[in-house]
């Protein structure tokens, strides 16, 4: 759900900024938010999440993952929208389509490949996160990276066999998603590589 939140908001914002132009330094400012040390940001987030009673819930975790990966999704999608030719959209506007209809019926179908590749990157960022899940969940409700880190025994130390098995299981969803969007992935990664 964090991927859906980040991709929905990031795609809409990236399209708006790419097509309507003001605030050209916004992508740089948003990506600079990722420079802050995670612990400096997580302490206020923990306090706010506890106040809102969002801790230890899947929707609270999905919301924070969506917020954290939103700048990355926005930045990635803005570069894709900047590389997309505007002539097709302008022709549809001349024919009488509204901006919303142009976005939903013309632009988004053309952007399937870039959307798929950006969604895969955002999903992998969310799926493999350790710190946010560690701080915002308890022992009763944890994500796979947090559970993997807790696999140890007082008798034998680290349970490497269990960690390896769980790591293999944890790799399955990103691999399945990558296989599902494989035909879009190569096209999305090379979208805009050549200028017309």
Summarize the structure.
By secondary structure, this protein is an all-alpha fold. It has helices at 2-20, 26-32, 38-51, 58-83, 87-94, 99-110, 112-127, 131-136, 144-149, 160-180, 182-189; strands at residues 152-153, 157-158.
SSE order and pairing:
Blueprint (H helix, E strand, L loop, with lengths): L1 H19 L5 H7 L5 H14 L6 H26 L3 H8 L4 H12 L1 H16 L3 H6 L7 H6 L2 E2 L3 E2 L1 H21 L1 H8 L7
Antiparallel strand pairs: 1-2
Helix pairs in contact: 1-4, 1-7, 2-4, 4-7, 5-6, 7-11
Instruction: Please state how the strands of the largest beta sheet are arranged side by side.
Output: 1-2
CATH fourth-tier homologous superfamily = MetI-like
N- and C-termini, Cα separation: 36 Å
The total number of structural domains is 1
Number of helices: 11
CATH topology category name: MetI-like fold
Percent helix among the residues? over 70%
Q: Beta-strand percentage?
A: under 5%
The helix/strand series, from N terminus to C terminus, equals HHHHHHHHHEEHH
| The CATH top-level class label | Mainly Alpha
Look at the helices and sheets and give the structural class. mainly alpha
Mean pLDDT over the residues:
81
CATH architecture: Orthogonal Bundle
* Weakly predicted, low-confidence segments: none
